[in-house]
From TrEMBL:
It comes from the Bacteria. Pfam families: PNPOx_N. It comes from Paludibacter propionicigenes (strain DSM 17365 / JCM 13257 / WB4). Residues 8-119 form the Pyridoxamine 5'-phosphate oxidase N-terminal domain. Coiled coil: none annotated. This is Pyridoxamine 5'-phosphate oxidase-related FMN-binding protein.
Length: 140
């Protein structure tokens, strides 16, 4: 497995769970993942949510993606520190890719639009076949 496998898996399985901390308490929530490419794993949210501020205070995170197959499935965990993106072209892409944002009054210029990515870190796949084997990490 390599980073291209991770990119493909996340783009094909966009529902993920993202972990943060708040006052030393773990927090996790389901998210609709935005996209991945060679530059990172991208997420879009709103500043009215709690977790962007949690990530500002502690940028370390882990995202878990899952594809259900038969009785079990495949899981991909991606860990790293987030980088907040302040790029007009990315903002435009977010609004174009996610038209529902307009229903919330979010535009490419809106301060409510928050984009972040995990550009560097490690990833590991899990299946029942490798359940008891040592993890193999993919550095990116």
């Amino acid at each position: 497995m390599n980073i291209q496998d991770c990119i493909k898996f996340t783009n094909e399985n966009p529902i993920c769970y993202l972990a943060t901390t708040e006052n030393d308490q773990p927090r996790v929530r389901a998210l609709g993942f935005w996209f991945a490419d060679e530059t990172g794993f991208y997420f879009q949210t709103s500043s009215v949510k709690e977790f962007p501020n949690q990530l500002l205070l502690n940028p370390k995170t882990e995202a878990c993606f899952y594809h259900h197959e038969g009785m079990i499935g495949t899981m991909l965990r991606i860990a790293g520190s987030v980088e907040f993106c302040h790029d007009r072209e990315l903002n435009e892409k977010a609004v174009n890719d996610r038209p529902f944002l307009k229903n919330f009054g979010i535009t490419a210029d809106s301060p409510k639009l928050v984009i972040f990515r995990i550009a560097h870190g490690e990833a590991s796949f899990w299946t029942m076949e490798n359940n008891l084997k040592p993890k193999e990490y993919i550095e990116f």
